[in-house]
Design a protein that fits this description.
About 35% of the residues lie in helices and about 35% in strands. The protein is of the alpha/beta class. The longest helix is centred in the middle third of the chain and has 26 residues.
Length: about 240
């Protein structure tokens, strides 16, 4: 899964360091910037475009709440978690759509619970964005790839990995097949528990024993189609 980008803002260096360790130890999140005042929060949000901001309330130059008000003017879908040594600002924080408000000292389980609250909306937005771009994002050998849907023949689950068979070759990723399926559009179909096929690239289908095989133009590998799915996939290809 592509990590959610997190920006941290706090004028206490020890608090920043603790938060950064907590965040980077979670595989679904990545700290992209740290800030020590409200002005840095605003400028770094514009530069790094994080999915989530975790900020203290009392900071120099501009406090956290004032900074977030300004940030939301140009990044309205930003998810915000406030962290403060005082609980008196909670009402004001939630008035500007804060996802959560944590009173220091921050406990790991409490922080992860707050991050979990940000995921549903962010996940829907990210999936919708990638579908509209008609590209599948995934990691391969430390690099980030964005493969056009039209270049994909099929995706195959192989142990803990998924193999993405494309016109440019076969790539590996540790993304789950269910997650990859969510990122794809209606031209793809889960034809088997371990195969997702691109309906638009199938040339012919033939039976083999208790299953069916899908073949693709100028590609020597085939995908499996469950006999329980064959009628549905034929209808989809014809329509």
């Amino acid at each position: 899964m592509i990590p959610y980008k997190v920006l941290l803002a706090d004028d206490h260096q020890d608090s920043l360091e603790i938060l950064e360790i907590f965040i980077n130890n979670h595989p679904q999140y990545e700290v992209v910037s740290t800030c020590s005042n409200g002005e840095e929060l605003i400028s770094n949000t514009a530069i790094f475009k994080p999915d989530i901001v975790i900020t203290d309330v009392k900071m120099p130059i501009l406090n956290g709440i004032e900074s977030i008000r300004k940030v939301l003017q140009f990044q309205r879908d930003l998810k915000v978690i406030f962290v403060s040594g005082y609980n008196e600002f909670a009402v004001e924080a939630f008035d500007i759509r804060a996802v959560d408000y944590i009173v220091k000292p921050v406990e790991l389980s409490r922080l992860y619970a707050a991050l979990e609250k940000t995921q549903t909306d962010n996940r829907i937005q990210r999936i919708g964005s990638m579908k509209s771009k008609k590209k599948l994002p995934f990691k391969f050998k430390g690099a980030m790839f964005f493969v056009p849907f039209s270049d994909i023949f099929f995706i195959e689950k192989a142990g803990k990995k998924c193999l993405i068979h494309t016109k440019e070759g076969t790539f590996e990723t540790y993304e789950r097949i269910g997650y990859l399926s969510e990122l794809l559009d209606e031209s793809f179909f889960l034809s088997h528990r371990s195969n997702i096929v691109n309906l638009e690239n199938i040339i012919y289908i033939k039976p083999q024993n208790e299953t069916f095989l899908a073949y693709f133009r100028n590609f020597d590998k085939h995908a499996h189609i469950s006999k329980l799915k064959i009628k549905e996939i034929e209808l989809k290809i014809k329509s």
